[in-house]
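A favour, since you know our structure tokens better than I do. Go ahead and set the record down below.
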Amino acid sequence: MNKEEILAKSRAENKNKDLYGMDVSKRAGSVTVVVMMAIAGVFFIVQILTGGGLNFGMWALVFSADMTNHWVKYGKLRLKGELLAALSYTLIVAVLSGCHIYHLLASAAIL
């Protein structure tokens, strides 16, 4: 086989997907979550130290990125580990969201 035949076969097997671009996107997503966690951690500590209380909503948003990631992976791969992770993150996001909404309502004297 010559170079063109090998390339054509590779394109057919990979359905013209850019494997390098897909790998870079995957790594970028992982780095994004780490940076979000770091920034949220700094904000969380500053908020506590300045007497601003706890902001559960911010953490719900941060964990929702991982939750979504695991649900998408489970949807495509149907792996039990991804399902368990997705359910775990969904529970965390639900609890944090509930705490945030409760604190908002309590501070507005609605409850």
Q: What stands out?
A: The helical segments are 3-14, 19-49, 56-77, 80-107. The chain has four helices and no strands. The chain has a mean pLDDT of 87.
